[in-house]
TrEMBL record:
The keyword Transcription applies. It comes from Exilibacterium tricleocarpae. PANTHER family: HTH-TYPE TRANSCRIPTIONAL REGULATOR YJDC, TRANSCRIPTIONAL REGULATORY PROTEIN. Residues 5-65 form the HTH tetR-type domain. The keyword Cell membrane does not apply. Keywords: DNA-binding, Transcription, Transcription regulation. Residues 28-47 bind DNA. This is TetR/AcrR family transcriptional regulator. Coiled coil: none annotated. InterPro entries: Homeodomain-like_sf, HTH_TetR, Tet_transcr_reg_TetR-rel_C_sf.
Amino acid sequence: MPKLTDTREKLLETAITLIWQSSYSDVGVAEICKQAGVTKGSFYHYFETKADLFYAACQHDWEITKKELDTLFSPSYTALEQLENLISFIIEKEERNAVECMPVTGCPIFTAGAQCGCDDQKVRQAALEMSENALTYNTALIRNLKAEGVLNGDPQPRQVGRLLHQYIEGLLVFGRVYRSLDMVKEDLREGLYRLVDLKQEYRQGGVQGDGEPLSAA
């Protein structure tokens, strides 16, 4: 018989997976329980509503994502390398989560937050908190790029970090609508370069191992 903690974790992981592949509004408690292999009684032992499960699942997913981001944005990398790491991370995550009918899944937390109504405050709160988490990393990235002198002008880090988040989420929704990961791959790097206003000599191929920019293609 599975431990109660195992049951709760299974519900969290199943909820995120199903919502990622579909949407928050289309996935019900019955389907989550069925796919997780647990009873509704077990579900309501841990969560009062689907929104409560979603909020907890977002927190659970963030703990995993945070570890990945801490690695990608490690101080051992230059800011340019961190930017390229971010681009690779977004693409690789989409490739991992893709299903045959949905090559671009996007962010279930962001899309659920956009769909929620007045009665889904926990869903909106999850989206707000996850957006703030992303903004923290983006702001630090812009600050580091600025310090390295690879940007044009004098950007305001938090504002540009916010623009990065908005662009990434919007692009993923666009790719989901068109069901095209190739479109995301084509526009992601160029869009981020333009938003951060990266100097031309640092664009395209990233940086070499010695930190020197590669020549533009």
